[in-house]
Predict the 3D structure of the following.
Amino acid sequence: MRFVYSQWLPTSQTDEQRLKEIMALFSHLLIQTSGDVQEALDWLRELAQQYGIFDETLSLEDLVDKLREMGIIQDVDGEPALTNKGIQKIRQDALNEIFTSLKKSPFGSHETSHTGSGVDRLSETKKWSFGEMPTNIDLTSTMLNSYRRTGIENFSLKEEDLEVYETENLSSCATVLMIDVSHSMILYGEDRITPAKQVGLALSELIMSRFPKDYLALITFGDDAKLVSLNELPFLSVGPFHTNTRAGLQLARQLLRKCGKANKQIFMITDGKPSAIFQENGQLYKNSFGLDPKIVNKTLDEAVACRRDKITISTFMIARDAYLIDFIEELTKANKGRAYYSSLTNLGQFVFVDYIRNRRKSFSA
């Protein structure tokens, strides 16, 4: 066995750290290539030639062997393909990348000003009141209160001595993530679908790992709306489609109406105006020029229907054209929802902060 020694520098990495970084890069390339493993490996080879990613201790071939060994990829009909474990790895890497940026960002706090009777214990305490969980009693503060009142010799415990930890009340949440797959998501050479998919992958991993009882569904919308399995997320691609926002909202509302009393919300990631609707005869009516009142009004009607069903729409716009902003503001007003105008780099920050916040609600006795 041959060992290669070099001078240690503060920027030096262990082999394990290098492998972790390269695999994260590979995951990102898989999102960009819609899950095409061979194309992602080809891109990785190109990057390696330009930036010297690999060396004698770790080659591209070593990486491929490692991916097979870990069960992330497998050969199907002689071609490398993602496994279910590989799809989960992409979700985990997307989540890690977004949460890393959240820690560095002023938007990264997951705190809330509301307290209640839930299960997430805070460090602050308050006086006990009827209905408080006994498990939330702060024994140290309670004993100190009693000692201050009676002294050590005549120790006794009264209701007024009891202190309990403040808690955050976490509610169940039902979420539909809507991703625009119309042609504009790759128009003018700007890749908008990759960040949208990355956010979807990270959000699905967060919910499945941390909030497994929460409901999450994925809808893509172009000419029509389609319910898509979460495992299909890495493989999504845009098409020569218009933007049927109304169909997406209709399908999302149908799904959420079945979710009982959970907090219901739609996260819609889009970069364009609605440009298509289905008419009563089932024909697709399309108009790509400006904001067609016929399309806009039907879409706003659906936003109002969502509001009546207590479904909040959070729209994440990744375009800043003035007339598009005007439409989103109208939709937000109709639904009493929220709108965020984010860049492609901070889209995940807005989505994650919004999701965590929407799971929390104040308690009223």
